[in-house]
Amino acid sequence: MAAPTLQQSSFLLANLKADATTKPLHQRCQDLVKIIDDYPAKELHSIFPWLVESVFGSLDGIIAGWNLRLLHSRSNEYNIVMDFLNPRYGPMMKLVYKLQAEEYKYEIPVNYLPGPVKACIQEGVLPDCPLFHNKLQFPLSGLLTLNLALNPFEFFMFNFAYCLITPKVSLSKSGLFYSTDSAYFVLVDTYLKYFLPSEGSVPPSPFSDSRGSVTAPSPRSSSVSFAGYGVHSPSLLKHHIFHQPSVNADPAAQEIWRSETLLQMFVEVWLHHYSLEMYQKLQSPQVKEPFTPTEEHVLVVRLLVKHLHAFSNSLKPEQLPLEEFKRVVVQRFVQQKLYLFLQHCFSHWPLDASFRAVLETWLSYIQPWRYTGEKTNPQPDQNRTVPDKWESFVQENLLMYTKLFQVFLNRAVRTDLVNAKNALMVFRVAKVFAQPNLSEMIQKGEQLFLEPEHVLHHRQPRGYLTPSQGGSYLSSRQKVVTDMVFRVKSHVYALEGQDCQYKQMFGTELRGALNQGQLTQLISNLGSSQDDGNCKQLPDCIQGENGLILTDLGRRQIINGLRRFDIQYQGDPELQPIRSYENALLVRLLYRLSSLLNDRFGAHMNALCSRPDFLGRLGRHYLTDPDSTTRLKHSPISRRTLDGNRQPRLSLRPLASYRTILLLLLFYMFGALLSFGPVSSTLLILTGGFLYGLLMTLFGDKLKTH
Q: What is the reported pTM?
């Protein structure tokens, strides 16, 4: 019976491959739904790797798949893809569970694993992550061609996670860009909410057969739950690759195995590209980077961080496997790998505004109190007091606050703070660390780490004395302090190594990181970046006797291109250069005529415009420039020059404009059609101009106010 089944599977796969090039996506999905429902697991087993590759693309990036990273909600195929890959009712997940019940395995080459994991396996050492335990396949050709045998759920999640970091050939050629409303980004959010729910429990899998259960991530007893996750102590002995741990079918682990698998796969594929030894080597400029994350990659990591905070903050007192998982999820699974990931990004990311994605990921991690789900009055970061219950989190993540802050400062002094976006990032960090009670928590954590070793050893025996044994009631507090010291020191040594040289965040070395000139420039840039419409704002000036005078701040603003004056022609309007829309001959003739009239009747014009009554206002409408006062406010022009240009005078230059000439010709032609002669048309034009000036004099101020 095996041969007919194999032939039928091959025939089914050949038909699907042919349809992939001829049928549209919605029809292919409809066919797949019928196939998944009707065919048994034995025949679906052979098409599963091809189907996963056709959806997510190949691991080498040659096959693009469905281009989930470029598929947006505006596309007609968006809803089809989202329904097909939905974790609750999607046909793809139904196929995964159908194959899971039959214990099928699918191979992944070790070469596609993250660098540190691949290096461990090739050196013959068992990786720290239990996800890769008991799954290695040993070929006869040697370790270099090792494969991992994953169950269907693991295989699906590995390809889904790897889709983010695969350098797709089609994406680079298309020139298109990603966004946070892409199908991939939304699917990540959907999978996180489904398998790591903040409310309720993980929905049970469609099968309950023990054959489909996943092995527990690591052997563990009921007394030490999750003890081995993410702890990278230098004193731990490394297990040899040929001594993989035996399977431990822990019933409690089976309840949340999908949650653990999804999280470990995301963390390993997205974050575990750097180890402590590798990061120390990367400090040498001769060493090439093994992996360079993209902005899209970092945005997805931030989504993961935010959801894990919300997930762990939804912890309930019940003794359930999911609640136990929430208690350790951030510290044991994410902390070290995210720390090295962020440290690498801080040190190697380009000095431009795209660093904002990395910065916000860091700030999201160090502020778990923002994701508690509590309905509180919204307050600015600097006014929101950090609750005392987060003191233990700050201490157990001390390097996330202190070391990364120092690395950020080193980056900030090399950044162009003239750029308002770069200055705003420094301002964001300052606002976060200025939150009341946070600096005290960080200082206390540093004091605990700097606690001398001999004091710690001297204090510990007394800490466990009870009052009946001669101790005091203060001994319980000493025990708590000892435990806190141990936690902080373990955290720092696990992330930086036993020989790390800790630099205090509030020490004297850090205070001179930004000099006075940089701080002054930063403050001025921040002020200008928060102004509305800063391009239209004037440089900083003071009013002098002859006009505006620039201050030192105003000069820096002009030099750095932050603000500018509205440069306009400030001389005699009659003498400005002849424009392309003006007739040069008419400009010169009309200038001579207007100059003659102004010289002859200048005194009368001054007398008329000086009158406070209606005639004076009417004269000023025709004989003065109403925009001269506005130009005074937006330019450092001297008052002497401006006063000379504000003298009442007749200007005939508008009549030299081709537009004016065309309008007059059209008006005279229209008058001729109505049997008006040139004299009558001229009188009508003058009358219309006089009435317009009259109305503007009467109602101009009201119109401007409105």
A: 0.69
